[in-house]
Model the fold of this input.
Amino acid sequence: MRMSKLLMPTLREVPAEAEIVSHQLMLRAGMIRRLAAGIYSYLPLGLRTLKKVEQIVREEMDKAGALELLMPALLPAESYQASGRWEVFGDNMFKLRDRNGRDFCLGPTHEELFTETVLNEVHSYKEYPLTLYQIQTKYRDEGRPRFGLMRGREFVMKDAYSFDLTKEGLDKSYKAMYDAYCRIFTRLGLDYTIVDADSGAMGGSGSQEFMVKSPVGEDGIAYCDACGYAANYEKAECVVSEKEFPEGDFQLEKIYTPNVHTIEELTEFLGTEPHVFAKTIIYKADDKYVAVMVRGDREINEVKLKNLLGCTEDPELAPPAAVREITNAEVGFAGPIGIGIPVYADKEVTFMKNFAVGANETDYHFKNVNIGRDFEPDVVADLRVIETGDACPHCGKPIKTAQGIEVGHIFKLGTKYSDALGLKSLDENGNTVSVIMGCYGIGVTRCISAAIEQNHDENGIIWPYSIAPYHVCVVPVNHKDEQQVSEAERIYDELLLNGVEVLIDDRPERAGVKFKDCDLIGIPVRIVVGKKIGEGIVEFKERTKSEPELMSVEEAVEKVISMGK
Ligand code: 9G3
Done:
């Protein structure tokens, strides 16, 4: 491709709207352009990389025995009403009406559609197991679209769905997808970690996320280098860590703590440390209130709370009016003693002694509180957020935490959707069974952002060879030098003839501008045709290396051709 003919509007300046490197570089490299919040156009370089990512996903899914379909993105409401999800996803779902006033949506995910397809088209147990997939544009009206393609409102997802008649079958289908994902992310050049994850609204018996470690990742990961344990922080099991508490048999004591609302103020006032205080936070879960307790130095894990309570809506902090109603005190003085609503305590609270809690009276706390004598929690469970340095739940070594970009998420769904849509089958013994499903997602456009987050430097993108928009750029240093230009053209033709994806920078620009653009757009190899071409010598500069190599034209051409093999 001639760069004089390529639409590649590179930018010198970083666009203000872009907060993270991958977003900045995709705009500066002329790969994408923003149309509206979370909605992007793909210019030639961006589209070439997108298609390469899609092709790698497609090849590995096909190799794993999955069958590719393509579902509509414009879906009638009925598709989601049978599963009850037409209401559940609220504002996140793009809804519209056709000319006859019928309800439609732009598809955010397709469990129902794939289940319906199998329901309508598969009629014998001999046709199972079946894994179907698509690579398709999804629509989700995210409240906070940001970070470019990382969290868009229109994005490309590979979504796959497996259908089995036995649990063992699901395990096999799930493993086949798990292995295919490992091959995909390896081929994409992503350094990824697989973590146990919460299944959230999807239900089912468990899920795993494929995470690319990055400080801009929205998910927290807890992992152990010693034994390989890794989990999304939402799910990571917490081990009780013992702390020092005042020893002795003290009487419960109510103390006047005027204007003491925060932990810091209370520990200051009592002259103790945060862990000698137990927080009591009141949550509204669906339509009931619960008091949740964790040690003062810990945070409540609301995903664990939601799963424990089994509520459909996310638990929310009770509004101040409700807190006053329940505790007869201002916010900040809630405690378990005599609170009158169920008390859910994190396991660590049961190891506390002579500790402080709110007294359910404005400006008062209790000290020297002891479980058993002064109150009994209704439920004790793992309800806290894991922290760096906590003991690994598997081997006890210190846990590490990191941020991660979720590029894949695989679920053992079970029969939630097949039951909702009546997908059953006779098995080989003639018994009627519910079809057991798995679902498997890859954020295809998000993988592009993740690849750049993991592969860039101060000069721009450093593409993994497999998804680079082009593999080599031939650059004549002086566009006025007849020999340099004709030799560069000859190399360009030779590479084209050998099927290499090659650019020639034939623009009438200074060499420095050409080198900067070539680095910015992340082309893996640059062949520089300069003064030494008189001796048949060119510079072979790999984007991952700081210094160019000098070599003959023939060697350079051979080297590039061999890289593509
Ligand atoms: C919606 C909207 C947003 C959503 C969903 C549905 C997330 C939704 C979860 C999944 C689960 C799996 C198939 C591929 C793998 C992931 N956000 N999820 O279901 F209607 Cl508006 O998408 N889907």
Q: What stands out?
A: The chain is about 25% helix and 30% strand. The CA atoms of residues 286 and 313 lie 6 Å apart.
